[in-house]
Design brief:
CATH architecture of the largest domain: Alpha-Beta Barrel
Strand content: 15-25%
Largest sheet: 8 strands, parallel, barrel
Number of helices: 13
Radius of gyration: 20 Å
CATH superfamily of the largest domain: Enolase-like C-terminal domain
Helix content: 25-40%
CATH topology of the largest domain: TIM Barrel
Oligomer: single chain
Structural class: alpha/beta
Number of strands: 16
CATH class of the largest domain: Alpha Beta
Strand order of the largest sheet: 4-5-6-7-8-9-10-11
């Protein structure tokens, strides 16, 4: 049996019960071929969920295959209908139970992420406030780092992109490495030349290197002032991450966690001492609720967190996390979000600032602009 939906609380007013759950998928071509150390792609798919109650609609999204939309439509829709829109923890546990026999990690938790974020948006709107005020604001602005620098880029495009972010006031930028390891020292040197000595330079291997290769390259990267080495080896290789963390040059942080699905994943990574900074992605780990679970675990281990991708989605929840180091301003997602939404958090002096007076997430979806990108799961 897959449907473990409990009856809605008897005390929930009818106007607060979830009346409608809708979902669509949109496939958006990249503006140029993109690749990292392990894969290449030419399009990104956004799965957008809407949850409605009491005349209000909340929205949330994930970046996944369009098949995640099918999971929202069945079984998650039936699990959510008629539930109290205020009871986000109850809804979160119910949708997780509903995917037990289907498979929670991966696509399942990405589907949950879209509806969970939509419920936070909805709840804030029902109460006439913003998500950041509902969560509690720990910071006025969320520092970001520019992220792209794909291995498919020619050197001149790499340099222009990274230097452009520095020109926008970002104090740190990240590039991809690992497709052709022998080219990486020269690419990193070119990036440093483009941005100057002051900004922090970060590299992301996406698990493309083996342990000894990563350690050898770390020495050279350190000479270019690289302070962040993300997934130098596979994020499944916790021993390897710990080895790198212990042996890379001083001043270089080892980061991983973007593929974390649930609290058990993050707990294993933290208990292994595998990272200096834990990356958390709300679009993969079950939405804002899952993000807060992971952030609390990291806090218990004394490890800061960094939000992975989906910058305008993460801005509210990151504003509520005191031990957050920064948030990724990923080229693909920042571009898509600027195409599809009005009311985005403002980029100011290298940080995103949410409007705490706007209802919910403060966003309006531009349906007309997005419509031409809509797809069905079968089309992807």
């Amino acid at each position: 049996m897959n449907d473990a939906r409990p009856a809605p609380a008897a005390t929930a007013p009818a106007t607060r019960r979830i009346a409608r759950v809708e979902v669509d998928a949109y496939r958006i071509p990249t503006d140029a071929p993109e690749a990292d150390g392990t894969i290449a792609w030419n399009a990104t798919t956004m799965v957008l969920a809407r949850v409605s109650a009491g005349g209000y609609t909340g929205l949330g999204w994930t970046y996944a295959h369009a098949a995640a939309a099918a999971l929202v439509a069945d079984p998650l829709r039936d699990v959510l209908l008629n539930r109290d829109a205020d009871d986000i923890p109850g809804a979160w546990h119910a949708v997780n139970r509903a995917l037990r026999n289907i498979g929670r990690p991966g696509m399942g938790l990405m589907a949950i992420a879209a509806v969970d974020t939509a419920m936070w948006d909805l709840k804030a709107r029902l109460h006439g406030t913003s998500v950041v005020r509902l969560l509690g604001r720990a910071r006025e602005a969320v520092p970001v780092y520019g992220s792209g620098g794909f291995t498919s880029y020619a050197i001149d495009r790499l340099q222009a992109q990274l230097a452009g972010w520095v020109g926008q006031g970002m104090a740190r930028v990240k590039m991809k490495v690992g497709t052709h390891p022998h080219d990486d020292p020269a690419r990193v040197h070119a990036a440093r030349e483009a941005i100057g000595r002051a900004p922090e330079l970060m590299v992301d291997g996406n698990g493309a290197y083996d342990r000894k290769q990563a350690l050898a390259l770390a020495e050279g990267f350190a000479h270019e002032g690289v302070g962040w080495f993300e997934e130098p080896v596979s994020s499944d290789d916790l021993e390897g991450l710990r080895l790198l963390r212990d042996r890379v040059p001083a001043g270089m942080n080892i980061a991983a966690g973007e593929y974390g699905w649930d609290a058990w994943y993050f707990r294993r990574m933290l208990a292994a001492g595998a990272v200096d900074v834990l990356q958390v992605d709300a679009t993969r780990c079950g939405g804002f609720t899952g993000f807060l679970h992971a952030a609390a675990l990291a806090h218990g281990f004394g490890i800061p967190v960094s939000a992975h991708c989906a910058p305008h989605l993460h801005a509210h929840v990151c504003s509520a996390v005191g031990h957050l180091q920064h948030m990724e301003f990923f080229h693909d997602h920042a571009r898509i979000e600027s195409m599809f939404f009005d009311g985005l958090p403002e980029l100011r002096n290298g940080a995103l600032v949410v409007d705490a007076d706007a209802p919910g997430l403060g966003l309006t979806f531009k349906q007309g602009d997005a419509e031409r990108y809509r797809v069905t799961p079968e089309a992807c």
